[in-house]
Amino acid sequence: MKKINLILLAIIAMASCKKENEFVKLSGKINSPKDSILVVTGENILKEIKINKDGTFKDTLKIHKKGHYRLTLGSNKRAIIYLKNGYDLILNAEDDPFFESFTYKGKGSDTNNFILSQFELSRNYGDPSSLYLLEKNAFDNKVRFIKKYIDSVNTLYGSKNIDTAVYNSSNRMSKQYLENITKDYERNHDFALKQKEIMEKTAIGRPSPKFEDYVDFKGGKKSLDAFRGKYVYLDIWATWCGPCIQQIPYLKDLEKEYHNKNIEFVSISTDEARKNGGSWEAAEKKWRNFVKERQLTGTQLWSGKDYSFQQAYQITGIPRFILIDPQGNIVDANAPRPSDPRIKQLFTSLGM
Q1: What angle do CA 293, 299, 300 make, to 5 degrees?
Q2: Count helices and strands in the chain by DSSP H and E runs
Q3: Over residues 86-92, mean pLDDT
Q4: What is the pLDDT of residues 126-155, one digit of tens each?
């Protein structure tokens, strides 16, 4: 009888263990949470976990495939978590900063703490463009520092219970990153220096680059200096640009609302010969017909063959909106679109 009981207990224990391996346990605490729901999303899953008033939470979830999942708190706090059935994770965090404050305990914590170390490492990498700004000796020193950090993390976590796929993938990506930035340094160094120069020239408060003698739909020509004494909200667009056309109704409403304010709404068409059978005359005609048919308001200009203004602002995509102050200085080189509520907030902050 005793032997039968031992066998029965063993069967029960095995069944219990098997059942636990079929789901993830996730619990923990978020200090001073402003939201009451923690959302887990990923491979065929969307799970809402209730956060208690004291910040604690506890739930289980079924994972169809082990891997990286997203944790979302509120509308703008996001993090990555690695989940696998059988994990029993205890997560502690702050409401703000969110992901940066994560600490894990329990089964599966080694893998997730390793991922956190990689996140911290990526912050130490810095923006590649900032690395390319460094002179060669400083760049080489930075690369050595990053490699040393990678090696120290691998030494720290190499003996821990980390998911092999995560560990190997991370090391492959780190190695590839170092190889790529080192190989591309010479070419990207010069490019980064040029980009920095451009950014400095179009920084807030700097005098705006100017356009000269752009064709005015109403007759004659206009230059940026013609609008001195007023704010200038520039719209760089073209008749062939779908997103530009989508902004037209919003721009009309904005111009109407601020018509008697100290601001000029200036649209600059970049229609060119290349998109009009090689004819500049056809490009100008298409622009004029479009302005007339759509009854566009504000000041309507055509840049023609002169792209110096667009090049000065490094405009590679349209629509692009720029705000300039009454003294001709840059307020925002990449201002919110007319459809974006932030543009009115910006106008209000400027006293309009």
Answers
A1: 50
A2: 10, 15
A3: 95
A4: 667 788 888 899 999 988 888 888 888 888
Q: State the Cα–Cα distance between residues 43 and 7, nearest whole angstrom.
A: 39
Q: Among 62-76, 81-95, 197-211, which range has the highest average pLDDT? A: 81-95
Cα separation of 16 and 9, whole Å?
10
Q: pTM value?
A: 0.56
Q: Which residues is 39 bridged to in the sheet?
A: 48, 72
Q: How many CB atoms lie within 10 A of CB 203?
A: 10
DSSP one-letter string for 262-276: SEEEEEEE---GGGT
- Cα-based distances in Å from 241 to 117, 136, 231, 238, 287: 44, 42, 26, 5, 12
How distant is the alpha carbon of residue 229 from its chain centre? 35
Q: Which residue do the tokens 């893998």 mark?
A: 111
Could you report how far apart the first and last alpha carbons of the chain are, in Å? 90
Q: 81: which strand partners?
A: 69
Coil, helix or strand at residue 229? coil
Per-position DSSP letters for 214-264, written without gaps between them: EEETTSSEE-GGGGTTSEEEEEEE-TT-HHHHHHHHHHHHHHHHTTTSSEE
List residues bridging with 263 in a β-sheet.
231
How many CB atoms neighbour CB 295 within 10 A? Answer: 8
- Per the CB < 8 A criterion, the answer to whether 230 and 329 are in contact is no
Rounded to whole angstroms, the Cα distance separating 213 from 224 reads 9
Q: What is the pLDDT of residues 119-128, one digit of tens each?
A: 887 776 666 7
Task: Give the torsion sign (CA, 66, 68, 72, 75).
Answer: negative
